[in-house]
Amino acid sequence: MKGPLLSYDQAPRRRTRMLLRLGAAALRPSLYPSSPVVPAYWWDGHPNFGDGLTSWLLPHFGVIPVHRVPGRAEMVGVGSIIEHMPEDFSGVVWGSGLMHDEQRPLPGATVLAVRGELTRARTAAPADTPLGDPGLLVSHLMRRPPVRWRVGLVPHGHHRSNRAVLALAERYPRDVHLINVHGRTGSVVREIASCRYVISSSLHGVVVADAFGIPAAWTSLEPDLPGGTFKFRDHETVVGDDRFLVLDESSSLEDLLDQVRPADRNRVAAATGDLQRSAARLREHFADRTMPPPLALSRMLRS
Predict the structure, then answer these.
(1) Is the predicted pLDDT of residue 151 greater than 60, yes or no?
(2) What DSSP string runs through 152-179?
(3) CB burial of residue 185 (10 Å; 0-12, 13-18, 19+)
(4) What's the pLDDT score for residue 215?
(5) How far apart are CA 99 and CA 87, in angstroms?
(6) What is the DSSP letter of 131?
(7) What is the DSSP letter of 301?
(8) 155: exposed, middle or buried (C-beta count within 10 Å: 0-12, 13-18, 19+)?
(9) Is residue 6 very low, low, confident or very high in pLDDT (cuts 50, 70, 90)?
């Protein structure tokens, strides 16, 4: 009889994912002759395309992130994960956000960017700290594909079976495309980019839509997410006004679409410019860690 499958967050499967990422990096010409190999933290407890953005984005900017637990990480990346870091964290913060609307200063950290004004204020980061979720950079790394679906409905993983989500998808099967956030990062980004409009209870569903200039709105569903709506409001401080809408079982698709709108193009452009510059600073910060990708992979295989 076969034993139980290893869960996604157990060490052997996490190590396998790490080796696969390093193997992919070894095939990327932009990382040669050498690039910084950085012990980094992002949430890796279950498959989720938004949580995978750190490892998907950084190699495009000449940095090879290697996943480490918070206490061993020297940088923290995309996601509502600042609370995961120890209070004496002395590494680099790159585009991270808070989950909860609470004070969480990191006095020893080098803050290259945070997700929004709310996170900047509650972490006591310098007033000139660049703002923006690094997910806004996806449109600089992927050409927008042709539109395939009228509406992309992007529920958070906790909302896949929410009645309002299922009702909307079932009532408008020709118009609404239900997107699974548990897919591979690049594939999910491409699906979202292939929609004319986006409605999402997943933050990164909105962020990706904003990156491509797609009219979008966000909603809050049962069960409540940890931190409530804080992360959405944090993102909106960067890209424009509040685009919250109410989604319930009786919602009309046309009424919902009357409430979606694109993020402010100029503000998105400013944020992505800042994020690109912060990614270059990240590479410079770890310049003493550079090595050829095959060497990084070899060391990981021996460790």
Answers:
(1) yes
(2) EEE--GGGTT-HHHHHHHHH-TTTEEE-
(3) buried
(4) 98
(5) 15
(6) B
(7) H
(8) buried
(9) low
65 forms bridges with which residues in the sheet? 38
As given in the structure block, the two tokens for residue 97 are: 């956000």
Which segments of the chain does DSSP mark as H helices, in order?
Answer: 11-25, 53-57, 117-122, 138-141, 163-171, 185-193, 203-211, 230-239, 253-257, 265-285, 293-302
What is the rounded average pLDDT of the residues 42-67?
94
pLDDT at 297: 87
Query: pTM score, two decimals?
Result: 0.95
User: Between β-strands 149-154 and 176-178, what pairing exists: parallel, antiparallel or unpaired?
Assistant: parallel
Least confidently predicted of 12-21, 78-87, 180-189 = 12-21
Q: Which residues contact 294 (CB under 8 A, 6 or more apart)?
A: 26
| Under 8 Å between Cβ of 172 and 221 | no
Q: What is the pLDDT of residue 3?
A: 46
- What length is written for the chain? 303
State the pLDDT confidence band at 194, using cuts at 50, 70 and 90.
very high
Measured CA to CA, the distance from residue 12 to residue 24 in angstroms comes to 18
Find the farthest-apart pair of alpha carbons in the chain and give their distance in angstroms, rounded. Answer: 60
> pLDDT value at position 260?
98
| Two tokens, residue 182 | 């548990």
Cα separation, 239 vs 258, in Å, equals 19
The sheet carrying 195-200 orders its strands as 176-178, 149-154, 195-200, 216-218
